[in-house]
Amino acid sequence: DLYRKVFVFRKDPSDAFVVLRARLEQPLHNFTVCLRSYTDLTRPHSLFSYATKAQDNEILLFKPKPEEYRFYVGGKFVTFRVPEGRRDWEHVCASWESATGVVEFWFNGKPWPRKGLQRGYTVGATAAILLGQEQDSFGGGFDLYNSFSGELTDVYLWDTGLSPDKMRAAFLSLRLPPALLAWNSLSYEVKGDVVVKPRLRE
Predict the structure, then answer these.
(1) Where do the Pentraxin (PTX) domain residues begin and end (predicted)?
(2) Full-prediction pTM beyond 0.85?
């Protein structure tokens, strides 16, 4: 249980990452991914990377610069511009539904204008899920200059789109529905220089 704890990625650039294990019985037609990050990086970095053997950017939450997030599904992406960080924790949730291709992006508990991506696509279930690196091949192929350095917490993956109430609940760290990946019952393995520490502030 990682309640009130964080992963600290200590080095920059870094070859470290955290492998997450999710129980996916079938491919995803809808999903929501949420996480909270704290960094002073200005270079591109990967936050959440979900790769299959067929597609290395099956799901990817990537930050090319401080005021921009890129959200990939099946190798294609949409961009969301956010306020330049005040060097504080940033909470993001991104959801996608296959039937419409609609992407929702929530930043610090507020929804951004919705966009469209990969209508009719299916996300593969046999996946390598990593924090802190961007996969260019299944479980590997890292570019150290896309690595994450800083603190990550509150990582979740659901196989549904979350309601607005639940999106806000994720931002506020309130009770959440059962998830494929849940921070308070996370199955993970640290690879390299990543340390689990208590959160310094709420």
Answers:
(1) 3-202
(2) yes
